[in-house]
Specification:
heterodimer; A: mainly beta; seven-stranded mixed beta sheet; 11 strands; B: mainly beta; six-stranded mixed beta sheet; four-stranded antiparallel beta sheet; about 0% helix; about 55% strand
């Protein structure tokens, strides 16, 4: 099966500019996650979708970050305006449905953001 | 609010077994223990998971303590391709969804 697709792979912007990341999960995976991974740290959950509804966005800085998942498939994560501390890799993951492979996350390669 | 504690780094010789420890003292009865690994410039990839009993698959084995407050990921014969950051994760069931809590990971260095 095709993996989780993310774009762009790399993005360099100046502070106060905006940026958007796109994710296409594995077909049939209802749950989609966006994680932020700062260099040298483990991934931190930003937002979790079940189909096109948000089930957890408690760690999302809502004054500057937004995310949507239209039609329960693709998702976009937007940052506006960006700050220096937003420099990180943004990882998208989707979760397999029930069965023997249940509750296993599949990650994309990530989008590396550098804010200057 | 990481729920797992791991050593920052470990080193192993090629073709020797590696035991990667993880503490999760606040684990509750329905929380699953997952392990993922992350190679450079890639997203994390699934390794193994379990609830109470020890688990084996083609990649590794997972040994879970009887009180479930700790676990160990075992790579039976480390290869250079196993050099990665290994994350011990708790999957917590909340209301109607699951949440995965990543720790800071153990960077494994494999020496030839």
């Amino acid at each position: 099966e095709a993996g989780v697709a993310q774009s762009p792979r790399y993005k360099i912007i100046e502070k106060r500019q905006s940026v958007a990341f796109w994710c296409n999960p594995i077909s049939g995976h209802a749950t989609l996650y966006w994680y932020q991974q700062i260099l040298g740290q483990g991934p931190k959950l930003l937002i979790q979708f079940q189909n096109n509804g948000v089930v957890d966005d408690s760690q999302l800085p809502k004054d500057r970050f937004s995310a949507e998942r239209l039609k329960g498939v693709d998702s976009t994560l937007k940052i506006q305006p960006a700050k220096l501390e937003d420099s990180a890799v943004y990882l998208c993951a989707s979760r397999s449905p029930g069965g023997s492979g249940a509750n296993v996350l599949t990650f994309g390669a990530g989008s590396r953001l550098t804010v200057l | 609010d990481a729920k797992t504690t791991q050593p920052n780094s470990m080193e192993s010789n090629e073709e020797e077994p590696v035991h990667l420890p993880c503490n999760h003292s606040t684990i509750s009865g329905t929380d699953y223990i997952h392990w993922y690994r992350q190679l450079p410039s890639q997203g994390p990839e699934y390794v193994i998971h379990g609830l109470t009993s020890n688990v084996n698959n083609r990649m590794a084995s997972l040994a879970i303590a009887e009180d479930r407050k700790s676990s160990t990921l075992i790579l039976h014969r480390a290869t250079l391709r196993d050099a990665a950051v290994y994350y011990c994760i708790l999957r917590v069931s909340l209301y109607n969804f699951n949440k995965f809590y990543f720790g800071s990971g153990t960077k494994l260095n494999v020496k030839p």
